[in-house]
Design goal:
CATH class: Alpha Beta
Largest sheet: 6 strands, parallel
Number of helices: 4
Helix content: 10-25%
CATH superfamily: Isochorismatase-like
CATH architecture: 3-Layer(aba) Sandwich
Oligomer: single chain
Shape: globular
Structural class: alpha/beta
Order of helices and strands: EHEEEEHEHEHE
Strand order of the largest sheet: 5-2-1-6-7-8
């Protein structure tokens, strides 16, 4: 697949807490780093996203007495999966993995920093209405096609891809550069949504 000057690579949440040893570790999460580096060589434009929660965030199971991680609760913004406390602002867990070297990235977008609403997507909070500002940034930069990689395939990458399409951008997910959580059929559900929305999934971006 040819990479064009108006393409951007969005790398989602390659942070310590999502990698082995972290508070919300994704199996083999560190394996995304090498394919992300290979892919990144092709792009003139790179954006990193960073989960950045305050203590006591709505999505933390510890905020909901009697609830356990991976249960769900209803919130004013819809159903919310409860997670272990993770990516708390200023902690080592919130830092990018030390093996991720993308110094050429032009923007680091922090999300999930509002205490009472989560944010999987790089484009919207989980009310699916409050923007993060990324769409405006891409439009001002005249970037039109969004390639996505990182953690996780079935949550932050997937919601970002779907919202990119909702906003009129082309969206391509680089499968080898993602890892999934695989929670209650989330991979299959998201892949069906990809098909409906016109999100393209490619195994890799060739050198």
């Amino acid at each position: 697949m040819e990479i064009l000057p108006e393409d951007v690579l969005v790398v989602a949440d390659v942070q310590n807490d999502f990698c082995p040893g972290g508070a919300l570790a994704v199996a083999h999460g560190e394996r995304v780093i090498a394919p992300i580096h290979r892919s990144a060589r092709r792009f003139d434009h790179i954006v990193l996203t960073q989960d950045w929660h305050p203590p006591g965030h709505l999505s933390f199971a510890t905020r909901h007495p009697g609830r356990k991680p991976f249960e769900s609760v209803e919130t004013p913004h819809g159903e919310q999966v409860l997670w272990p406390d993770h990516c708390v602002q200023g902690t080592r867990g919130a830092e990018f993995h030390s093996s991720l070297h993308l110094l050429q990235a032009e923007l680091i977008l922090r999300k999930g920093h509002h205490i009472d609403i989560d944010s999987y997507s790089a484009f919207f909070e989980n009310d699916h209405a409050t923007p993060t500002g990324l769409a405006g940034y891409l439009r001002e930069r005249r970037l039109k096609r969004v390639f996505l990689a990182g953690l996780t395939y079935d949550f932050c990458v997937a919601y970002s891809a779907l919202d990119a399409r909702k906003l009129g951008f082309s969206a391509v997910v680089i499968r080898e550069a993602c890892q999934a959580i695989g929670l209650n059929g989330s991979v299959e559900m998201m892949e069906e949504k990809f098909r409906q929305a016109g999100v393209v999934v490619v195994e890799r971006v060739e050198d």
